[in-house]
């Protein structure tokens, strides 16, 4: 499966969750349900995966974590905030660069319409 196929599945799952639960819950609730639903569909998911920073031969484990990495192709960063901060898409792009992955989805569940809460971030895709 390529990145765009994986992202379509992720977006559909996020839509279903948002329709059933709506906005306003904690990010951790959405993360657990996303993990469960994507795993139920047979996708390989890593949750709260550590992202080390490499500097020359130095590996720095500084506590950076991706909410979800799906099929080792798409990083999913989940939020449940009133408004995304400018740092949120930058952070996801940095995670993509550090990991070498090409596609990330920044999903803010605290929107009236989930389509308004999904931002696609690409790294040389």
Describe what you observe in this structure.
This protein has three helices and seven strands, in the order ααβββββαββ. The chain has 125 residues and is of the alpha+beta class. The chain has one domain (3-122): Trna Endonuclease, Chain: A, domain 1. A five-stranded mixed β-sheet has the order 1-4-5-6-7. A two-stranded antiparallel sheet has the order 2-3. Helix 1 (3-21) crosses helix 2. The longest helix has 19 residues, at 3-21.
**CATH topology description:** Trna Endonuclease, Chain: A, domain 1
Count of strand segments: 7
Mean pLDDT: 95
Strand order of the largest sheet: 1-4-5-6-7
CATH class: Alpha Beta
Estimated structural class:
alpha+beta
Summarize the main sheet.
5 strands, mixed
Give the topology string: H per helix, E per strand.
HHEEEEEHEE
Oligomer: single chain
List segments where confidence is low: pLDDT < 50 over at least 5 consecutive residues: none
- Please tally the helical runs, counting DSSP H or I stretches of 4 or more residues: 3
Q: Give the helix proportion (percent range).
A: 25-40%
The backbone outline, from C-alpha atoms, is globular
Tell me the span between the first and last alpha carbons.
15 Å
Q: What percentage of amino acids are in beta strands?
A: 25-35%
Integer-rounded radius of gyration: 14 Å
